[in-house]
Design a protein that fits this description.
The longest helix is centred in the N-terminal third of the chain and has 7 residues, at about 10-15. The chain has helices at about 10-15, 170-175, 175-180; strands at about 5, 30-35, 40-45, 45-55, 75, 90-95, 100-105, 110-115, 120-130, 140-145, 160, 190-195. It has 3 helices and 12 strands, in the order E-H-E-E-E-E-E-E-E-E-E-E-H-H-E. By secondary structure, it is mainly beta. The protein is about 10% helix and about 35% strand. It has a single domain (about 5-200), classed as SOS response associated peptidase-like (hypothetical protein yedk fold), CATH 3.90.1680.
Length: about 200
């Protein structure tokens, strides 16, 4: 759904892949293990910025009017435009070279690396929010959107991130909810490579 991310390509390569006219983020190093709560490179309609992965739901309530207490790392595509906890959020894309999932029981878990078969980038659909911290400091936040898994991922997890074609990124960023609904579906079967993660995958964690 994803559990951890990795972005090992250069920012120059990312800017070229997305045909962005906006300068890529400077000083961003290759990262093999990006965890919730850390900063991630995010593409918005205004260009690339860093955001905290995980929306702190201060002031947000659920359908029963009760405060949402848990940090929102992922948002289900089935409810992202309807659930009160997501009201007023924006949209963005989280570019990665892949992500990790785990199977098995505690202390016996197996880590799996998921990446595109042909290499390159994957683009997660995401929602955004801004948390105003004590002192008035604003912290941009992002949560990935999830959907049911495709045939590649179903053997290791019951959810996967909504992946976008490069040509659909502008629509996701600026389209109306009814227009982007068709994008929120499992990625095409057979286009992901899944392999057991090795120690080198976690280098620099």
């Amino acid at each position: 759904m994803p559990g951890r991310l990795f972005l090992t390509a250069s920012m120059t390569a990312l800017a070229a892949e997305t045909d962005s006219d906006v300068a890529p983020i400077s000083g961003e190093q290759p990262r093999r293990n990006i965890a919730p709560g850390q900063q991630v490179v995010t593409l918005t309609s205004d260009g690339f910025i860093r955001m905290r992965w995980g929306i702190i739901p201060v002031g947000r309530v659920n359908a029963r009017g009760r405060p949402v207490m848990e940090t929102l790392i992922n948002a289900r595509c089935e409810t992202v435009f309807d659930k009160s906890a997501y009201e007023g959020t924006g949209r963005a894309v989280v570019p990665v070279n892949g992500w990790y999932e785990w199977t098995g029981e505690k202390r016996r878990k197996t880590a799996w690396s998921i990446r595109p078969k042909d290499g390159g980038f994957l683009f997660f659909a995401a929602i955004t929010d801004v948390w105003t911290a004590p002192g008035g400091i604003e912290l941009p936040q992002v949560a990935t959107v999830t959907c049911p898994p495709n045939k590649d991922v179903v053997k290791i997890h019951h959810r996967m991130g909504v992946l976008l074609k490069k040509s659909d990124i502008p629509l996701w960023l600026t389209g109306e909810p009814e227009d982007v609904a068709r994008l929120m579906q499992p990625w095409h079967d057979g286009q992901l490579e899944i392999a057991q993660a090795t120690d080198v995958d976690w280098e620099g964690a």
